[in-house]
Amino acid sequence: MTTTTNRPQWRAYMALARLDKPIGTLLLLWPTLWALWIAGAGRPSWWLVCVFVIGVFSMRSAGCVINDYADRHIDGHVKRTVGRPLVTGELSERQALGCFALLVVVSFLLVLTTNKLTILLSVAGLGWAALYPFMKRYTHLPQLFLGIAFSWAIPMAFAAQSNSLPLGLWLLFAANLTWTIAYDTMYAMVDRDDDLKIGVKSTAILFGKHDKLIVGVLQLLTLVLLVAAGQSFALGAWFYWSLLGAAALFVFQQKQIADRERDLCFSAFLNNNSVGMVIFVGIVLTLL
């Protein structure tokens, strides 16, 4: 399916990199900031904060570009993605790969300002980010790979801030992993009908009629793991109050997806930005 639009090329590049849709960047940013604040005991290096914030934007955009490249032959068959630049013909495959390379180089230049451990971790992080878009062809668990990619900034943040990888960070990693699978399953519920027609795999398809229950279990596991992480890092009361706020938002999301209506499932997915923000505020306040 190839069409054309009237938007200028710079806007097509913005759409390719999802600069016009920052939700994915925010969902990657919040756990990165959780880790930086905890690793820095409430006083992270502001240089590192800048490096990781810019890096989140560039790597999330790189992930979107390679995702669109991987899906260039199927996006035209999905209602939500028919307007993507590689589908409409506004940008070529070569232009997309060039954009991906540029964003990866920018990200790597940023990580070079940190330390050896962070640089080594970044190589693995790039691998996870590049692998995820292709997994929906081979497994019903692409959300697992997205979760690993979106959680990889957590050990990188600890490595950059403290040059160490304390065991507690892996509780934070696991919590973000289960949270990512939960919210991206809600996202996949939006496209489930289209995905079934074209043979794309997802946890929404795998979970089937049990999707809402399993999302709820994943949300509960996220909270349990965050409590364990809070105990590991001796976080105070504000952190646990923030988890109550996150729990309330999870209940709200369950109500939104109750009838599996597309727009409400997408709204529930978007609501996870508030979850990440509430937890970050709790971490900041408890470490003041």
UniProtKB/TrEMBL annotation:
EC number: 2.5.1.39
Reported cofactor(s): Mg(2+)
Main location: membrane
GO BP, sorted A to Z: ubiquinone biosynthetic process
Pfam families, alphabetized: UbiA
Swiss-Prot/TrEMBL keywords: Cell inner membrane, Cell membrane, Magnesium, Membrane, Transferase, Transmembrane, Transmembrane helix, Ubiquinone biosynthesis
One GO MF term attached to the UniProt entry: 4-hydroxybenzoate polyprenyltransferase activity
Keyword Oxidoreductase set for record: no
InterPro entries named among the record's database cross-references: HB_polyprenyltransferase-like, Prenyltransferase, UbiA_prenyltransferase, UbiA_prenylTrfase_CS, UbiA_sf
Taxonomy, superkingdom: Bacteria
Cellular component terms per the entry's GO annotation: plasma membrane
Cellular location(s): Cell inner membrane; Membrane
Membrane topology of the entry: Multi-pass membrane protein
Involved pathway(s): Cofactor biosynthesis; ubiquinone biosynthesis
UniProt cross-references to PROSITE patterns, sorted A to Z: UBIA (PS00943)
Catalytic activity: all-trans-octaprenyl diphosphate + 4-hydroxybenzoate = 4-hydroxy-3-(all-trans-octaprenyl)benzoate + diphosphate
Transmembrane segments: 21-40, 46-70, 91-111, 117-134, 141-161, 167-190, 211-229, 235-252, 264-287
Family: Belongs to the UbiA prenyltransferase family.
Free-text function comment from the UniProt entry: Catalyzes the prenylation of para-hydroxybenzoate (PHB) with an all-trans polyprenyl group. Mediates the second step in the final reaction sequence of ubiquinone-8 (UQ-8) biosynthesis, which is the condensation of the polyisoprenoid side chain with PHB, generating the first membrane-bound Q intermediate 3-octaprenyl-4-hydroxybenzoate.
Family annotation (PANTHER family): 4-HYDROXYBENZOATE POLYPRENYLTRANSFERASE, MITOCHONDRIAL, PRENYLTRANSFERASES
Record protein name field: 4-hydroxybenzoate octaprenyltransferase
Record organism: Oceanisphaera avium
